[in-house]
Design goal:
- Helix content is about 40%, strand content about 10%.
- The longest helix is centred in the C-terminal third of the chain and has 27 residues.
- By secondary structure, the chain is of the alpha+beta class.
- Strands 1-2 form a two-stranded parallel ribbon.
Length: about 80
Amino acid sequence: MNLSLQDLADFHVIVSLQGPVKSYVDNVPFHTAALEWDVGGVVAAELPEDQRRERYAALSREIAVQVSNLMTTLRGEEAD
């Protein structure tokens, strides 16, 4: 099933990067998907700056992969 951009506009997604969505949102609205992505822990402030940068870069890459996978799931693998 391929969804158009208009079809996708009817959906909402809540993503938690730290634990269950229910910890942050009491009632998930209709037409809303609640997802929990395990992208790793919080970046510790006491890490040296170069290690913090590396960790943030790794988090950014992991989130980008998750978003790409979500879009493939919603639009289908053959979508343009």
